[in-house]
């Protein structure tokens, strides 16, 4: 039996809080797509999703999320949050929203929209440049 959207959202959030890219990727379908909008091409497939998540956590080891609201639909949910952490020694806190499409109890697609302009103002550099230097992301 597939887990409920609420249970999936809770487990997904917990895996991010634990900084566990393997557990996060395990909640994605084999053909899942993770689109981190305005920063990189979509990661397609569970392994590519895991690599992207690993890169994000490497860039910001103290990454955390403060949930503001969550909305559930039939086969999707949307979360609004503040993402914060430290990048290159500088703290940041930016607004974000994720749109999850769920199939058979797993994340089939995740679209993340973050306030990259606020990030750039707070941290002082283009986030795309730092993720590219990590070598995990491919264009």
**Beta strand %:** 35-45%
Tally of DSSP β-strands:
6
* Spatial arrangement of strands, main beta sheet: 2-1-6-5-4-3
Distance between the termini: 37 Å
Number of domains: 1
Structural class assignment: alpha+beta
* CATH topology label: Nuclear Transport Factor 2, Chain: A
Low-confidence stretches: none
Your description of this structure?
With about 140 residues, this protein is of the alpha+beta class. The chain has one domain (about 5-125): Nuclear Transport Factor 2, Chain: A, CATH 3.10.450.50. Helices cover about 35% and strands about 40% of the residues. It contains five helices and six strands. A six-stranded mixed β-sheet has the order 2-1-6-5-4-3.
Which key terms come to mind for this protein?
single chain; 139 residues; alpha+beta; Nuclear Transport Factor 2, Chain: A; 5 helices; 6 strands; 35% helix; 40% strand; globular
Helix and strand arrangement:
Layout: H1 5-17, H2 21-26, E1 28-36, E2 43-44, H3 46-59, E3 64-72, E4 76-87, E5 90-103, E6 106-114, H4 116-123, H5 127-133
Parallel strand pairs: 1-6
Antiparallel strand pairs: 1-2, 3-4, 4-5, 5-6
């Amino acid at each position: 039996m597939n887990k409920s959207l609420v249970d999936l959202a809770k487990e997904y959030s917990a895996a991010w809080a634990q900084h566990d890219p393997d557990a996060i990727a395990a909640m994605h379908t084999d053909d899942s797509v993770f689109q981190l909008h305005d920063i990189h091409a979509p990661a397609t497939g569970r392994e590519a999703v895991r690599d992207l998540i690993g890169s994000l956590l490497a860039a910001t080891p103290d990454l955390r999320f403060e949930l503001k609201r969550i909305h559930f639909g039939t086969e999707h949910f949307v979360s609004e949050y503040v993402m914060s952490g430290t990048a290159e020694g500088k703290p940041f806190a930016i607004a974000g929203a994720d749109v999850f499409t769920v199939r058979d109890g797993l994340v089939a697609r995740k679209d993340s929209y973050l306030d990259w302009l606020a990030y750039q103002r707070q941290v002082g550099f283009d986030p795309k440049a730092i993720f590219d230097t990590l070598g995990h992301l491919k264009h």
